Amino acid sequence: MYSSIPKGMTDLTLAIEKATNAVLTNKYNPFYYHGALPQFYLWVLFLSGLLLFAYYIPTIDNAYFSENLVNAWTSVDYITDTLPFGAVVRGIHRYAGDAMVITIVLHALRVWITDRYRQYRWTQWVTGIVLLLMVLFIGQTGYYLVWDERSLVLTRMTSSALEALPFVGPGLKAWFLNGAAITNLTLSNFLFIHIGLSFSLLFGLWLHYVRMTRPVITPPPAINYILVAVLLVFVFLLPITSGKMADINAQPTSFEIDWFFLWPYWLLAHMDTTMYWVLMIGGSVALCLVPFPSLYKAAHPVEAAEVVLNKCTGCSFCSKDCPYQAIEMVPAPAGSRFKLLATVKAYRCSGCGVCVGACAFDAIDLPNLLDTDVTAKIKALAETK
Ligand code: HEM
Ligand code: SF4
Ligand code: SF4
Q1: Bridge partners of 148?
Q2: pLDDT at residue 296 above 70?
Q3: Domain end: 295, 322, 354, which one?
Q4: Residue 295 pLDDT more than 90?
Q5: What is residue 297's predicted lDDT score, i.e. its pLDDT?
Q6: Is residue 300, in this structure, part of any structural domain at all?
Q7: What separation in Å is there between the alpha carbon of 13 and the centre of ligand 1?
Q8: Cα(362) to centroid(ligand 3), Å
Q9: Number of helices and strands (H, E) in the chain?
Q10: Does the pLDDT of residue 2 top 50, yes or no?
Q11: 126 CA distance to ligand 2 middle (Å)
Q12: Are residues 275 and 341 in the same domain?
């Protein structure tokens, strides 16, 4: 069944999941909330980001050093050192971002290992990769906003890397810096990108969920409390600090890497720019293409479920149970004893057979798997246990 994935990996994952069930029960098993965990961190990021936004000032002025100097760096410094609970909110925002990356990667691994990414799930896979890339870029723009020496190095590295792109390079650089050089407008652009892209994640998530009838997007409250408690432990054990204030006349070169968001800069520093873009663009496209061979190699092409018109009572069970919103209940034709009739949207049907199991009236079949065959298979399986 899990043909494209080493069976040992699938077995190990399922064994760990089973062991976790024994300890935490399946209601609180985080394995069952693998997609809901990054979604939870997204809400935490929105809330903490909103609070930070209220005090953030997107300017780079540092022409003079006086007590009255107001710029991005000093506003972040104010949030961290003076504002009541400011350091906690900043820490939560930073660590929730790290946690979101970790949980997205674990979520992607989980759907890959359990073979839930191929065929009709390709839309979730592709939108998932795009979401991951967006999250990485949003995190990087967050690092620019602090406007310490690291922000300056990252900004310069990004604008040089963009400029090196053929044809679009100079335009992209001007868009990124919001002009020909780093100015106050650059930082307002970073803030706009950071917040604008964060909100567009919601549209990406809508695309990610639209083919699923009941995506699990919220962990139980007990898990949420634990997640927040773990974030707070990190906030207090490893408080977030800024580096030295950026000075655009200086040439800082080294900076501390955050391995969750800034690893592309490590690559950029260690390879030729062309090679970097080939790797980043090629890698992203290759990841998006992962589910596609299965669309062509499917041993049994998907054949949509079919309703047996004269048996359907319009009870709607199949429509409620279908995981892919492939069954619509429509008014039954005139003269029918029933009010509704199930109809299958073939383009949405995965051929999973859930509706066949849901129908108590033998009124829906898969063309290559009749209801009677399914029942016979289940009986045979039950007897071998
Ligand atoms: C912002 C990041 C992401 C969030 C918040 C997210 C959230 C979710 C949620 C809530 C589900 C439903 C899970 C369920 O009901 O069991 C889901 C399903 C899925 N996700 Fe993601 N996801 C994200 C990124 C990704 C990435 C990076 C990938 C892979 C490249 C991915 C691939 C999938 C697939 C294939 C499914 C369908 C799994 C199934 O039908 O069982 N997602 N996602
Ligand atoms: S086989 Fe049935 S339950 Fe599965 S997707 Fe198709 S209509 Fe929905
Ligand atoms: S479950 Fe069966 S009887 Fe009920 S609406 Fe669906 S096809 Fe018709």
Answers
A1: 245
A2: no
A3: 295
A4: no
A5: 59
A6: no
A7: 17
A8: 8
A9: 15, 4
A10: no
A11: 22
A12: no
Q: Whose CA is nearest to atom 1 of ligand 3?
A: 359
Q: What residue owns the CA closest to ligand 3's atom 3?
A: 312
Q: What is the pLDDT of residues 67-114, one digit of tens each?
A: 677 899 999 999 999 999 999 999 999 999 999 999 999 999 999 998
Q: Residue 136 in contact with residue 23, Cβ under 8 Å? A: no
Contact call for residues 192 and 178 (beta carbons, < 8 A): no
Tell me: the pLDDT tens digits for 21-51? Answer: 999 998 999 999 999 999 999 999 999 999 9
Cα–Cα distance for residue pair 328/216, rounded to 1 Å:
22
* Helices 273-289 + 122-145 axis angle, to 10: 150
The number of distinct structural domains making up the chain is 2
Helix axes 221-237, 86-113, angle to 10 degrees: 120
Q: Which domain holds residue 265?
A: 7-295
Which distant-in-sequence residues (6+ apart) come within 8 Å of 27 by Cβ? 220
- CA neighbor of 268 nearest in space, from 154, 354, 383, 150: 154
Instruction: At 14, list the tokens.
Output: 């399922």
Structural domain contains residue 153:
yes
3-state secondary structure 222-265: HHHHHHHHHHHHHHHHCCCCCCCECCCCCCCCCCCCCCCCCHHH
Residue 1 domain flag:
no
Q: What is the DSSP string of 275-301?
A: HHHHHHHHHHHHHHHTTHHHHHH-SS-
Tally of CB atoms within 10 A around 64: 7
- Give the helix/strand (H/E) hosting 344: strand 340-344
Are residues 54 and 170 both part of a single domain?
yes
Tokens of 341: 């009739």
Q: Is the CB of 305 inside a 6 Å radius of any atom of ligand 2? A: yes
> What number does the ligand 3 atom closest to the CA of 319 have?
6
pLDDT band at 301 (very low <50, low <70, confident <90, very high): low
